[in-house]
Amino acid sequence: MKKVLLEVKNEVAWLTINRPEKRNAIDYDVMELFNEMLTIAEERTDVKALVVTGNGTEAFCSGGDLSVFHEIYTKVDAEKMLNKMANVLLRLFFFPKPTIAYLNGTAVGGGCEIATACDFRIAAKNVKLGFIQGKLGITTGWGGSTYLLERINRNEAIQLLMAAEVFDTEKALRVGFVDYIYDNAELYNWLSRFTKQDLGVLLAYKRRYSDKYDKELIHNRVLAEIDNCSSLWETPEHHDAVARFINK
Ligand SMILES: CC[C@H](C(=O)O)C(=O)SCCNC(=O)CCNC(=O)[C@H](O)C(C)(C)COP(=O)(O)OP(=O)(O)OC[C@H]1O[C@@H](n2cnc3c(N)ncnc32)[C@H](O)[C@@H]1OP(=O)(O)O
């Protein structure tokens, strides 16, 4: 079964991370397929918006696949992995069509980073969220803190990052991390208000939306984030925390 699925329904491309047995954790295959699906969604003229979601009802995405990435020890090797997914999320952040993270379930760690790279975050009820990287002795490393500081109030953003806590949809709504709490039908109705316009209209407004950002500046901030994360990656605190999860 493919680890990432892409389906176009009602002029909306649904990119689904398809590893429910691992709470939709991200490994190298997912990174490659995610990028390939972005290309398809970008190039298809019958696609007016992109929804990123997770398969199943348990999780949107549980972040990096610890059973794979726990073998990464050095800063140099960590940078290689982090850059791979950071480049995918930078592309998602500047995607030319409206992007929506549909939080169908738990989103933690890099899962929250993927959601933050999307223009909108819409959650199902009772979803748990958390930038929990700090509990593993690292920071975000795929661009998540760079994007979070652009998406919500900076003081709310830095608290979510430093606390590394799991929080609920009510708090996410309150701090502006989640835009709406919708079920599938409500999401479809909300999306249809936009997809009834011509693609050219949506492309033009998304250019205005993205024009706010200096792409080189954002990229440099992501590179600084990767430098922070990869330096912390080498610490015993990080390796011990990951080992505790692997050996749980
Ligand atoms: C730059 C990004 C950064 C990085 O890549 O390093 C990160 O993303 S750091 C954060 C990495 N993610 C985590 O630390 C989350 C770990 N997972 C959990 O905390 C829980 O699994 C949770 C809350 C997501 C779901 O809990 P639940 O009780 O519903 O499920 P289980 O814990 O029993 O997990 C089921 C099954 O999935 C495997 N699993 C879950 N998450 C991961 C993961 N991130 N990597 C690898 N495998 C994962 C878990 O081991 C279980 O497998 P099983 O074989 O059934 O034991």
UniProtKB/TrEMBL annotation:
Matching SUPFAM superfamilies: ClpP/crotonase
Which principal EC class is assigned to this enzyme? lyase
Q: Which domain of life is it from?
A: Bacteria
Q: What is its EC number?
A: 4.1.1.94
Query: A GO term (biological process) for this protein?
Result: fatty acid beta-oxidation
Subcellular compartments: Cytoplasm, Cytosol
Q: Which family does it belong to?
A: Belongs to the enoyl-CoA hydratase/isomerase family.
Task: State the PANTHER family in the record.
Answer: ENOYL-COA HYDRATASE-RELATED, ETHYLMALONYL-COA DECARBOXYLASE
Q: What role is this protein assigned? A: Decarboxylates ethylmalonyl-CoA, a potentially toxic metabolite, to form butyryl-CoA, suggesting it might be involved in metabolite proofreading. Acts preferentially on (S)-ethylmalonyl-CoA but also has some activity on the (R)-isomer. Also has methylmalonyl-CoA decarboxylase activity at lower level.
The molecule here is called Ethylmalonyl-CoA decarboxylase
Q: Record the organism.
A: Anaerobacillus arseniciselenatis
The organism that produces this protein has a lineage beginning with:
Bacteria, Bacillati, Bacillota, Bacilli, Bacillales
